[in-house]
Design a protein that fits this description.
The protein is an alpha+beta fold. It contains 26 helices and 21 strands. The protein has a 6-stranded mixed beta barrel with strand order 2-3-8-5-7-6. A hairpin with a 2-residue loop joins strand 12 (541-554) and strand 13. Helix 17 packs antiparallel against helix 22 (698-737). The longest helix has 40 residues, at 698-737. The protein is elongated.
Length: 839
């Protein structure tokens, strides 16, 4: 009752999986990479979801900028449930020694935290840490602040002009992830201290947030409606626990796809190994196939017999990959769970594993059906002549392979967070694979043309490279794809690191001064010049008026964010930085329109950042509505400018003519280039003359960004190396598939008088050339992939890590050359007589 093909397949499988080890390894490797990426991302998502209320600090978070909540708003919030308040600002902390450092100051109410707990060193209670000591307010501070100021617990210091005492080391806050990036160490205090210390004054960069745990029976939607009804001005920002950490959620989505894409690339790179393993297995079974056909079996029976075997073994390879990919995150979680910046629940998640399994099965089908098709169409006579001479025509195997390949691409695109980016990446990998395959064919032909110009071992190596079993046709594309991915990662990393460590420090200011009183701007300039000990010029010091405002309408119509492009939507989600500048500054970057005259006094006009204008489809002459300092302003777009936000210049999203803000008391910001010694000197000097001015060290922020990027790219490089490993598996498969032919070749050469070293040299030349070709082509493709990412996406300067690129080429050549030597040693280990007598 069992179909004949199943019975034959079962008999064939009794001999084990010896011919399918590379097949299993290639599939398992790619599936494991995809499963591990998906499972790790799911662990982070589950961790965020399980602690959503704790991360947000409640069921709802309601924020306002540049003001505090009114009594009416506080009453409306109190009707919804329990409420805690926190006010955040920036200020300068100063030690008795004169050392100063910018800090992120946060004042909290007695009810804080509503959910979770603040973690303090030594297990101190928050209420005790924030209790006053004489005339000094108690604060909890991060350890880097104590280190920078040379303080220890119990020491007194100043924040602004307010005396405080460091009572505890701040280790963690439950709502830390929901608040974004900090410019300095965190300091936690009572909200009364922050309010009484003058940190919440008009025009200062502060915000207040109310966190609410809702009463039973009050839904999130109903609470949001009640809050928005209580604030007709529309300047309340409301988030619920379902969007506790949107930035981290987007980062996890993108990282999962990128790492999963590398796993998919590994499957594609290993596809040649899958195809080669199936072809080599069928080559070993050609006598059996010939016998079946000679006895009257049709091609379908032969195909189905081996299709069943391959399907079963593909399932085994996928299962191995799922086990490895499912267990790897569990091991990772056990090792580094306490060091992760995001909560994670490491477990076995079915959906990522199912997706990885589907990728693996589709890959197996796409690359194994073609050899089966050739075996089906090969006539018995050809099989008895020991050759698989069938051609892959248009039939069920080709249709199945094409459908599987299309399914792979469709699955990658559908499961990606950005389908367009996924499509570009899939097309890029397919094109790279095709280019590498063509380069392999070209290298084989070139080797055939060059062998006549050489002698000895070089001639033998080039002849093998040009032969029908050449690794240039099989292994070079897979190795090249792995090298291309590694090269792209290395080149992107080197360019961005160079941007952060070399280009940015040269172009960006070293110091940013904020909260400069507008009526003391000239005195501040003098104080800075005295601290520097030299006259300051426009090349190393600039000062501008500063304010924040919001774009509330475009061309007389309320903003429809659905019609705003994603690249500029940030400018319409919150207040933006702006300045009021008369004469056109140097490096204004105007790309359309023109700047107004220095004494312009007509209707308000603005210069708008280019990406924001493009996202909102704004053109010259369009009118936008602004809310600046609580005052509505209608302004016409007079200029569109390209802003270098990391450069030394007027890096404001919007610039308005000074007449539009006449009478307003605007604070000033200044930027300066300085050496580390000048930076320390000016920071200390301003503590006496301008203690209220915040000094931001850009150099420290760049160093922190460089360290973070290094840690991230280390993980990405490790993932990209998986694709390189897939290429090496293909090389191992090619060596294994040709082991019998190579043994006969080595035996023939020995009989003809070739020395052992000559045979070894021939194999090393052949496989070393394959590695060099794959390395060169892979690095070239890595260049092509990395350049647009660096220049167009990150808008950074292109910087090539030549040492890394050369190391990849040399490494590919060395590893493949070593593979050739191993193959040669295995062939030479066998005595010539039995090898030559064997069929």
């Amino acid at each position: 009752m069992i179909p004949l093909s199943f019975r034959f397949a079962a008999r064939e499988l009794r001999s084990g999986v010896r011919g399918f080890r590379i097949f299993l390894a290639c599939l398992a490797l790619g599936v494991a990479a995809i499963a591990a990426a998906g499972s790790t991302a799911e662990a982070f998502r589950a961790g965020l979801a399980s602690q959503a209320a704790e991360i947000l600090g409640g069921d709802l978070a309601v924020g306002v900028e540049q003001r505090e909540f009114t009594a009416g708003e506080q009453a409306a919030l109190a009707r919804l449930g329990r409420v805690s308040y926190a006010a955040a600002s920036r200020a300068m902390a100063e030690a008795p020694s004169g050392e100063r450092r910018l800090v992120e100051l946060r004042g909290v109410s007695d009810a804080y935290p509503l959910v979770g707990a603040v973690t303090l060193g030594g297990g101190m209670r928050l209420a005790d840490a924030l209790s006053p000591e004489g005339d000094a307010a108690g604060v909890a501070v991060e350890q880097p602040l104590l280190d920078r100021l040379g303080l220890k617990l119990g020491d007194r210091f100043l924040i602004g002009n307010v005396p405080v005492v460091a009572r505890a080391v701040l280790l963690g806050e439950p709502d830390r992830l929901s608040r974004g990036f900090n410019l300095g160490p965190r300091v936690l205090a009572r909200i009364g201290m922050v309010r009484g210390g003058g940190f919440l004054g008009p025009g200062l960069p502060f915000g207040e947030t109310a966190r609410i745990t809702l009463k039973p029976g009050v839904s999130l939607a109903a609470a949001k409606r009640a809050i928005l009804k209580a604030a007709p001005a529309g300047d309340l920002h409301v988030r619920d626990r379902n969007e506790a950490a949107p930035g981290f959620t987007r980062l996890i989505d993108q990282l999962e796809y990128f790492l999963g894409f590398i796993g998919l690339s590994s499957l594609i790179a290993g596809g040649l190994g899958v195809s080669g393993a199936v072809g080599a297995y069928l080559e070993q079974r050609k006598t059996s196939i010939a016998a079946l056909k000679a006895l009257g079996a049709d091609g379908a029976l032969a195909r189905n017999t081996y299709l069943i075997q391959i399907a079963l073994l593909a399932g085994l390879g996928v299962a191995i990959g799922l086990v490895v990919g499912g267990v790897a995150p569990l091991i990772l979680g056990a090792l580094v769970k306490d060091q992760l910046p995001v909560p994670a629940l490491f477990a076995v998640y079915p959906i990522p594993l199912a997706k990885a399994a589907l990728f693996g099965l589709l890959s197996a089908a796409a690359f194994s059906l073609a050899p089966l098709g050739r075996a089906r169409t090969t006539p018995p006579a050809a099989l008895f002549r020991q050759e698989l001479a069938g051609r892959l025509g248009f039939g069920p195997e080709l249709i199945g392979a094409l459908l599987a390949a299309a399914g792979l691409a469709a699955l990658a695109i559908v499961t990606a967070p950005t389908p367009l980016a996924a499509t570009i990446m899939i097309v890029g990998v397919a094109a790279a694979f095709l280019v590498l395959f063509v380069i392999g064919l070209g290298a084989a032909k070139a080797a055939g043309a060059l062998r006549g110009l050489t002698t000895g071992s070089a001639r033998i190596g080039l002849a093998n490279l040009a032969g029908p079993r050449s690794a240039a046709r099989t292994a070079a594309p897979a190795i090249g794809l792995g090298v291309a991915l590694l090269a792209a990662v290395v080149l992107i990393q080197s360019s961005l690191i160079a941007e952060v460590t070399v280009a940015a420090p040269k172009a960006a200011p070293a110091l940013v001064f904020t909260e400069i009183p507008g009526d003391q701007a000239a005195a501040f300039d003098t104080a800075v010049a005295q601290a520097f000990g030299r006259p300051l010029t426009a090349k190393d010091y600039l000062r501008f008026p500063f304010a924040t405002g919001r774009i509330v309408a475009l061309r007389g119509q309320p903003i429809d964010k659905a019609k705003i492009g994603a690249e500029g939507r940030w400018a319409f989600d919150a207040d933006i930085s702006l300045s009021a500048i008369g004469a056109e500054p140097a490096d204004a970057g105007v790309t359309a329109g023109r700047w107004w005259a220095a004494d312009y006094a007509g209707p308000p006009v603005v210069a708008l950042e280019q990406s924001v204008a493009e996202a909102a489809h704004l053109k010259l002459g369009d009118v936008i509505s602004l809310q600046i300092l609580g005052r509505p302003i209608e302004a016409r777009v007079a200029a569109i400018r390209k802003v270098d936000f990391g450069g030394f210049g007027p890096a404001f999203t919007l610039v308005i003519d000074p007449a539009a803000l006449a009478g307003a008391s605007l604070r000033q910001v200044a930027i300066a280039k300085a050496t580390p010694a000048e930076e320390a000197r000016v920071t200390r000097a301003l503590g006496a003359s301008f203690p209220q001015v915040d000094v931001i060290s850009v150099r420290e922020q760049l160093q922190a960004a460089s360290q973070l990027f290094d840690r991230l790219t280390l993980a990405v490089r490790g993932a990209a190396a998986v694709a390189g490993l897939a290429g090496l598996l293909v090389l191992a498969g090619a060596i294994a598939a040709g082991a019998r032919a190579r043994a006969k070749e080595a035996a023939t050469l020995k009989v003809l008088g070739a020395a052992r070293w000559q045979i070894l040299a021939a194999y090393a030349i052949e496989y070393g050339a394959v590695g060099a070709i794959a390395g060169l082509a892979g690095v070239a493709l890595g260049f092509a992939a990395a350049w647009p990412v660096v220049v167009k996406v990150f808008e950074a300067s292109w910087s090539v890590d030549w040492a890394g690129a050369l190391a990849l080429i040399a490494g590919a050549a060395a590893i493949t050359g070593a593979g050739g030597l191993i193959a040669a040693l295995a062939a030479l280990a066998r005595r010539p007589a039995p090898v030559l007598r064997a069929e």
